[in-house]
Write a structure and sequence with these properties.
Layout (H helix, E strand, L loop, with lengths): L2 E5 L3 H13 L3 E5 L2 H10 L4 E5 L7 H11 L4 E5 L4 H9 L4 E4 L4 H16 L22 E3 L2 E4 L4 E4 L2 E2 L4 H12 L4 E2 L1 H9 L6 H14 L10 E4 L3 E4 L4
Parallel strand pairs: 1-2, 1-3, 3-4, 4-5
Antiparallel strand pairs: 6-7, 7-8, 8-9, 10-12, 11-12
Helix pairs in contact: 2-3, 6-7, 6-8
Bound molecules: calcium ion.
GO molecular function: DNA binding
Protein name: DNA-binding response regulator
Keywords: DNA-binding, Phosphoprotein, Transcription, Transcription regulation
Length: about 240
């Protein structure tokens, strides 16, 4: 039974999508916002995603790019915007097909099975389905850690649905730590891979870490995401 993740914030539309897809033999999971969708895609593999572009937390285009950053799962976008340039943008951002609202259940099922037919013959881009898609030009992948989402491609970061205003260096630092989340990264490594300048000292890293902490709403004494491992380095984790 193919599994589909339905991402739609309107409860009645969500319910009717779930019903029509269940009736047609799909195992349906659902999410009401972009973060919920990213969490679902990260946690359990799914065969396809039906993604509403008008979501309350993330811009639909950002949500699509972030899904693309962590998974090669086929995405069928549902858009209220019947605007050619918008649709071209969505397809360029990695959607496999789109539907313009309002659409019938029959149209949804037909488009979805066509997308699944097309994509099931294509070998996954990653080592396994759902593996991160990385390209040479974009070595850091989009990452979701707890309520923090970082998209190096679009250079955007969100905390609990709110976009963070970061300086270039703060963003680079956060993206690097998020990419290596769960691992302790030494300051020496941050200097060589984020700063890439030979004459910067450890204190520069500390200064940027403390401003990054402030923007994440935490303190070194009471960290949530950025843990200092004394004498070793920094580790970005999901808060407990
Ligand atoms: Ca919506």
């Amino acid at each position: 039974m193919p599994s589909v993740l339905v991402v739609e914030d309107d409860p009645s539309i969500r319910q009717s999508l779930i019903e029509v897809l269940s009736e047609h033999g799909y195992a349906v999971r659902s999410a009401a916002d972009g973060f919920g969708a990213l969490r679902e895609v990260t946690q359990t593999p799914v065969d396809a995603v039906v993604l509403d572009l008008g979501l309350p937390d993330l811009d639909g285009g950002d949500a699509l790019r972030m899904i693309r950053g962590i998974s090669s799962v086929p995405v069928l976008v549902a858009t209220a915007r019947d605007d050619e340039s918008e649709i071209i943008k969505i397809l360029n951002a990695g959607a496999d097909d789109y539907l313009v609202k309002p659409f019938s259940g029959g149209q949804l099922v037909a488009r979805l099975s066509a997308v699944l037919r097309r994509t099931s013959h294509v070998p996954p881009t990653g080592a396994a389905a759902g593996a991160p898609v990385a390209t040479a030009a974009e070595p850091l992948r989009a990452t979701v850690v707890g309520e923090l989402a970082v998209d190096p491609g679009a250079r955007t970061a969100y905390l609990a649905g709110r976009e963070l205003r970061l300086t270039r260096r703060e963003f680079d630092l956060l993206a690097f730590l998020a990419h290596h989340s769960g691992q302790v990264v030494s300051k020496r490594r941050l200097l060589s891979e984020v700063w890439r300048e030979p004459y910067v000292d450890d204190q520069t890293v500390d200064v940027h870490l403390s401003s990054l902490r402030r923007k994440l709403g935490e303190r070194a004494a009471a960290p949530r995401y950025l843990l200092t491992v004394r004498g070793v380095g920094i580790k970005l984790v999901a808060p407990r």
